[in-house]
Amino acid sequence: MAPKAETPMKVHITSRHEKLTEGLRDHIEDKIQRVERYLGKIKDAHVILSFERKKMHVCEVTLTAKNLKLSAQASSHDM
Known about the structure:
Layout: E1 10-16, H1 22-39, E2 42-51, E3 57-65, E4 69-76
Parallel strand pairs: 1-2
Antiparallel strand pairs: 2-3, 3-4
């Protein structure tokens, strides 16, 4: 029996009300890969960025690992 090939982590990024730049996309992917050190292999990551004009910017992250599903949300005046 051949060893199972590891499937790469799937990162889904949704940007609402503003275009997502390559720099921001790279930054998000780098940060998620750093979290993998603590959680182990992450199967799926979903990031939602909401840009509200003259209001708060919101970032929601959902990570799915082997036996774990984590969700976090943060808001700021500056993304």
